[in-house]
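Escalation from tier 1.

The customer reports that the assembly of four entities below gives different structure tokens on two consecutive runs. Tier 1 could not reproduce it. I'm attaching the input and our single run for tier 2 to review.
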Amino acid sequence: MNIKTVAARAGVSVATVSRVMSGSALVKPETTAHVRRVIEELQFIPSASATTLKTGHSRNYGVILPDITNPYFAEFIREFESLLEDQRQDVLLATTERPERMENSIRRMLTSQVEGVVILIADEEFGPNYDRLTLRKIPAVTIDRLTVAPMMSDVAFDFDTGMLQAVEHLAKFGHREIAFIGGIKGLATSDRRKQAFVKGMRACKLRAKKQWLLDGLYTVDSGDAAMRALMAAEVRPTAVITVNDMTALGAMRAAHELGFSVPGDVSIVGLDDIELTRVISPALTTIQLPRRELARACVECFAHMLKHPKKPGLQRILESRLVVRRSTGPAKR
Amino acid sequence: MNIKTVAARAGVSVATVSRVMSGSALVKPETTAHVRRVIEELQFIPSASATTLKTGHSRNYGVILPDITNPYFAEFIREFESLLEDQRQDVLLATTERPERMENSIRRMLTSQVEGVVILIADEEFGPNYDRLTLRKIPAVTIDRLTVAPMMSDVAFDFDTGMLQAVEHLAKFGHREIAFIGGIKGLATSDRRKQAFVKGMRACKLRAKKQWLLDGLYTVDSGDAAMRALMAAEVRPTAVITVNDMTALGAMRAAHELGFSVPGDVSIVGLDDIELTRVISPALTTIQLPRRELARACVECFAHMLKHPKKPGLQRILESRLVVRRSTGPAKR
DNA sequence: CTCCTTAATGTAATCGTTTTCATATTGCGT
DNA sequence: ACGCAATATGAAAACGATTACATTAAGGAG
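Tier 1 run:
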């Protein structure tokens, strides 16, 4: 079943059918109606491969991420896909747990001739993989890398605002001993979060103790381990801010298992605002990164790059803000 | 950049290049090596749309699900994608929150000419949408529907085993008053879980009280609400089994917020074994549905249907089993 | 040395659309 | 009634791969 069948059945040429499908104005209304009826009757659906081959547009966008199981990514995908759906575009998924597999993911994107790629992999160097994209003029959007080039945009978060709000919030509760469980040292997105914390502390005239600036792995287990380390020391923080919500979840689990009450004994602040923050108890106070705006910013970046292939990509900054829930409370004295 | 460029550069015909790419044996080893070098040098990547158009194979599989944010689905996708990757296939995602959008999702799958679709939507009637798939001989796999037809397979779970283990496990702890928080009434997958529970109770010589067989929505909030209802009654169950882990999480949250300890005051058993069961505290005892085997079964079903288009699809049943963690303990007397 | 088989490569048709260009039809002014 | 826009449609050439068929080269048997 193809456009020819439809044309024959409708008694018109394939060109006319094609025009009807694309909504071209050059077709007589009656013809349009008639052809539409035949299309409906035959349940005709045009072949994407033929269309793509001819037009050069695949209507596919790729997303490369380390783990779809991580709620942060899953929630992004949901928003992104919903935006694309409105534009009748599809999303192609490539999971890349380890950076070594990046080449494979990029190849899959290239063969599928995606019209853009969102790269949600943080711990990976720019390299020949990216050249392969730009070489083919495929726009890419990275997250939180702050680097921009032709056909390469970046959307980053401003952690300062949210982090300042978080520290102020804790300070208001009387907390002075605040620890930070960070992410992977050396990763831009990780270091910037830590810096934002230090900055927030300074703004509140609090000292960020060196031994309370921990590194981690963004995972529940690493949050758990870091929390145990913090609580095992002779002098313990009364509040902890974490690099992401999963880490906070781990920290909270550790606190519970060590017999500390949250927020009675320790207050905990996360970062991301994944939906899980509301399913655990106490609900997590966290610094919200707007997921929907992130997806929207990606779409904008793609539009910009497709329009101005020679110009550098966009650099968008999204605000973060504190969402207060139940995991923070007055400092124990 | 296309196959012609490569052919010209290598001084051979396009046919030879094509043969080299597909690994055909009819090419002299030296020629193969030479062409390979040129392909590498030019970073040539063949156009998927052209290949698909010509061969009729898109190397794409579709997955239609209600919400990628639900860990159960996300974990399935991860396994499924990883299996497909080995076969150099891609996954196309279509999120369908409400059944009304099913038609749209199916259309997207059809235009993309997927070679198979996994349908993870439970609350939806078979209807013209499915005819559109079978009409085009596109194999589909449904989950837990127990219906099979040509080009339609189903992989279901046997809840009986796991449920029996769960009830036995609770009974051994002295529980006699066990409630069940179910899913959406009338859904096959939901009703079968409830029946398995009742059956398990009977096998253990326990009575499943009518007022302790609740319906729900598979969500955290519905688990929360159901738990509150259970605990507000004058006579309370000492253990609760839920239709899925998200419901169990909600139940656990409600218990905590009402001041009940888990498992001190109530034991809770989930179903699914999503990764979250290990991040919350206490870690959730749950009936495990093997995610990886589910993905593998889907792949097998596709293979079968592609091989035997006329025969009815496969019906695979996967076992469930109890995984004991910390949310269950001795019954309070 | 010729004939025939086998191996290696090339030629060209094809997949299902879109789109340019050509053609047919219509309406309108004079 | 004629010519000329404007409008509606059709014919055919792409897009980039695959593959059936044709061709050439080489090797072996008689």
